[in-house]
Task: inverse folding
């Protein structure tokens, strides 16, 4: 039975632990190291897991070590852990902006490393995670890592580490794009005369329904859009205006900016 140790017991760690336990991982298999006493109590009350405030002692027991602290403190935390990892557990970082080269600088190149990019909907078990591993991750470790993230949504491996920046642009930052669209639809729905509550309910359930249809259907997003766009109808009037205003290009510029920022952050947090 692999011991899974979390360094940092905040929102994302708690959500991954909840997902794993709901999927059948025994709570005794999980240990969390977290400085906050209140946070430790909450984790053991909520999930029945063991907790500690001693990162090194916890890491020393790990078969799989999940680094779940903020990117800004990752360097200091990992350098401090390094002496406790001579048994070479697989190490997963979920921090945005920490490249594997930084983890290798702090931990050495002879350790299996995974860079994971989950997103906020993991907190409601509907996450989308991109994963990249170095060549030392075994097939068995790969399966455990997949199970960990599939417990809170879907998980996809990417072939090159640079593609994690594309994952950040699509799914990492993606929830906020949809929130922005919802904000606009709700605001304009009200401008068109709908009560606030009605505009909110209609837009939220439209987003849910469209997403469910796209997930359940064999058809592509473009085909689904064409199916609901009758020539000369209201949807065509709206879509035509989006296209005329260059919506796709606005998305291209926005997502390219996200990639550029991810690259800058990698440099900022790597020392
Ligand atoms: N939340 C998301 O949706 C999301 C999505 C993708 C990636 N991530 C990544 O996941 C990581 C965690 O994010 P989060 O949202 O879970 O943040 P969080 O709620 O702030 O959790 C981080 C936890 O680490 C604890 N911590 C601080 N210093 C520590 C130390 N020296 N040793 C061990 N634990 C320490 C913090 O305790 P204190 O509060 O007492 O300082 C806090 O409980 C980040 O790197 C973030 O980039 C998060």
Result:
């Amino acid at each position: 039975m692999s011991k899974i140790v979390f360094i940092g017991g905040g929102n994302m760690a708690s959500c991954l632990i909840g997902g794993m336990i709901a999927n059948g991982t025994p709570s005794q298999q999980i240990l969390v190291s977290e400085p906050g006493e209140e946070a430790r109590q909450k984790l053991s009350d909520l999930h029945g897991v063991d907790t500690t405030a001693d990162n090194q002692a916890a890491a020393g027991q790990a078969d799989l070590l999940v680094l779940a602290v903020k990117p800004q403190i990752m360097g200091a935390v990992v350098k401090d852990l390094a002496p406790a990892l001579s048994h070479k557990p697989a190490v997963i970082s979920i921090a945005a902006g920490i490249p594997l080269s930084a983890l290798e600088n702090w931990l050495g190149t002879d350790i299996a490393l995974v860079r994971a990019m989950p997103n906020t909907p993991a907190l409601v078990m509907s996450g989308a995670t991109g994963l990249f591993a170095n060549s030392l991750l075994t097939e068995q470790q790969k399966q455990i890592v997949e199970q960990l993230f599939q417990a809170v949504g879907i998980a996809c491996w990417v072939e090159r580490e640079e593609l994690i920046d594309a994952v950040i642009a699509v799914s990492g930052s993606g929830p906020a794009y949809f929130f922005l669209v919802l904000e606009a639809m709700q605001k304009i729905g009200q401008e068109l005369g709908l009560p606030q509550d009605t505009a909110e309910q209609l837009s939220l359930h439209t987003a849910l329904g469209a997403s469910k249809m796209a997930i359940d259907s064999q058809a592509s997003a473009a085909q689904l859009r064409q199916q609901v766009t009758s020539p000369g109808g209201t949807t065509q009037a709206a879509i035509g205006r989006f296209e005329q205003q260059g919506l796709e290009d606005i998305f291209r510029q926005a997502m390219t900016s996200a990639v550029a920022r991810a690259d800058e952050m990698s440099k900022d947090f790597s020392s």
